[in-house]
Amino acid sequence: MIEKSTQCACTEEMQKYGEIRNVIDLYRDTEGSLIQILHAAQEIYGYLPLELLEIIAVSLNKPLSEITGVLSFYSFFSTKPRGKHTIRVCLGTACYVRGGKKIIEALRKTLNLEIGETTEDGKFTFEVARCIGACGLAPAMMIDGKVYKQVTPQKLTSILNAYMD
Ligand code: FES
Q1: pLDDT of the chain, 165 residues: tens digit per residue
Q2: Ligand 1 mean position to 106 CA, how many Å?
Q3: Which ligand 1 atom sits nearest the alpha carbon of residue 129?
Q4: From the alpha carbon of 93, which atom of ligand 1 is closest?
Q5: For 98, how many CA atoms within 13 A lie in the half-sphere containing its CB?
Q6: How far apart are CA 34 and CA 37, in angstroms?
Q7: Number of helices followed by number of strands (H, E) in the chain
Q8: Ligand 1 pocket test: which of 88, 89, 90 has the largest number of ligand atoms within 8 Å of its C-beta?
């Protein structure tokens, strides 16, 4: 027996593409708007897959290489799906000398993840940062917008537990 589908699985994706097209239309004639468009597209879609970059390139009448060139220059753009939460461990000078690398190592082991990767369950993306403005209480890390100061490997489990919803 064939079950009746209630809604196309691609509806949500089509809506996101529609929103991105609206953003492109809004900024199309604005000089230097590519970064704004890419930001908005990443905000809406979550990341910037190749097919989306191709749509942006065609819509703006730009070569795809120009778009990918911008992406490779700015670390905040991602071409892979990102986790629900983003962990950024600071490796700026103050954090580096006060144990930032130990935090990195502990997270690699705890999450079984390398820098730049996302956990298989899609919960965390693991990145490094260069100073997040908490040098006086280094080492520091951020999860989404929240800054954690004087982090130690021992504190990591309780910090991460708050995001295990
Ligand atoms: S160097 Fe880590 S917060 Fe400034």
Answers
A1: 444 445 565 788 888 889 999 999 999 888 889 999 999 999 899 899 999 999 999 999 999 999 999 998 887 788 988 899 999 999 999 999 999 999 999 999 999 999 989 999 999 999 999 999 999 999 999 999 899 999 999 999 999 999 987
A2: 18
A3: 2
A4: 1
A5: 19
A6: 5
A7: 7, 4
A8: 90
